[in-house]
Amino acid sequence: MYTYVKKALYLAGLLAVLFCLGGCSLQFGDGLLLLPKVPAEYVQLQQQLNEILQTGAAYAVPETGTSRQAVQLMDLDGDGAEEALAFFRTEGGAYQVYAFRQEGESYVRIGMAEGYGTTLRAIYYPQLEGKRYGLAMCWGFDEVGSYGMTVYDFAQDGMRVLMDIQYADVVISDIDENGAQEMAFAVRDSVTGLYSARVYQFREDQYRVLYEVPMCLEVRSVASMQFGRLDDQQVGLYIDSLATTGGYVTDVIWYDGKTAANRTIDQASGSGAKTWRPGSVFCTDVNGDGRMDVPVTHSFTFEPNEIEARSRLDWLNYDDLGGETQVSSTLHRAGENWYLLWPESWGEQVRIDTVSAVSLSETICYLPGEGDSRQPVMSIYVFTGSSREEDAALYRQLQALASNASGLYRCSLSDSVDPAYALDIQQARELFRTIEVSWNAEEY
């Protein structure tokens, strides 16, 4: 996650000012009578904000992100004093940000910037260098999957634009750990419709393009961007995208300090088909070795059924030269927020099927027998709904695997199957993983 020093202040009214400055948790009743005295500088700031409101402007609140207040306090220049930033929308539909610097017992306006978008999507403070931060205002546009970002810097004489860009997705991180955050964008060419990955770094008081490389031609829209380890020393940019043919593909981009390369794209055709998989499963460190892994469709030695074709995944690790190594295989049920690390002993002999009912599903791992006969090895049950605890209690023969907000996970294990395929409950729990739903507050 992205780290920055941040405080927020609601100034929609005097009571909100008192609450935020007190550093208190929300109180009701008599607790509201214990608010501290308001410092004079904040009263003076509120007066200036009221003057802006009297022009017909209204406070503007970002749609997403962690900085969602109309008025925010942030030490932008690292001098220990917080600047105040107030966001408005004018009667004409423009978005405005007013910046104020604290001087003695008052706030002095140091600048105003104006931008246009259908919505004010998010506010972020990218780290420029050391304790110095910029302001990124992110815009929503009418075009589906297209956003804009304007990045400002602050100086004694006002605000200046550092960057203005239209993008499909972005990730911001200090990848080289030098105290300045890089900004990686997925951008779409308006003529060809093709995507590329463009990374900026802040150097010599401005943003410069560090590199730009093409993404695979199958990209329809970007679903996830993240930096992750290629190996113990190298960091790669991993971009998961919805494919034009359905399913998902991944671009893995590596930069050696001089040149950048897309390690998963076919250099001749521009295709990234080798990373294709049918479901919305994104790159992660699936085996816990500290390196990012890429999910791809499992290569079967037999004709899989629909459940197997959609649920079995292989996980590849890429090195800085583009070499790939399979590090794991999984039974992945993304819709139910769980997966199972596929035991090597199961190989291609164990097959998969599912049975679903209201608030209950069963995934059966079995050995096929003669005709239509099956010998269950392991069954995984998912209980959902408001009465999941009561429903699960009715199945007393089941053993607990895990539980989370998505459901209760239970299993049954066969004690009569060939020992080469059998699992005990400890092994089952070590192989089973839940997928925690990620409510990413820092959307751009």
Q: Characteristics of this structure?
A:
30 strands; mainly beta; 444 residues; six-stranded antiparallel β-sheet; disordered N terminus; single chain; five-stranded antiparallel β-sheet
Describe the structure.
- With 444 residues, the chain is mainly beta.
- The protein has five helices and 30 strands.
- The strands form seven sheets. Strands 1, 2, 3, 4, 5 and 6 form a six-stranded antiparallel beta sheet that branches. The chain has a five-stranded antiparallel beta sheet with strand order 21-22-23-24-30. The protein has a five-stranded antiparallel beta sheet with strand order 25-26-27-29-28.
Oligomer: single chain
How many β strands by DSSP? 30
Biggest sheet overview: 6 strands, antiparallel
Helix content: under 10%
Gross geometry: elongated
Number of helices: 5
**Classification by helices and strands:** mainly beta
Radius of gyration computed on alpha carbons: 27 Å
Low-confidence stretches: 1-38
In whole angstroms, how far apart are the ends?
A: 13 Å
**How confident is the prediction overall: mean pLDDT?**
87
- Portion in strands: 35-45%
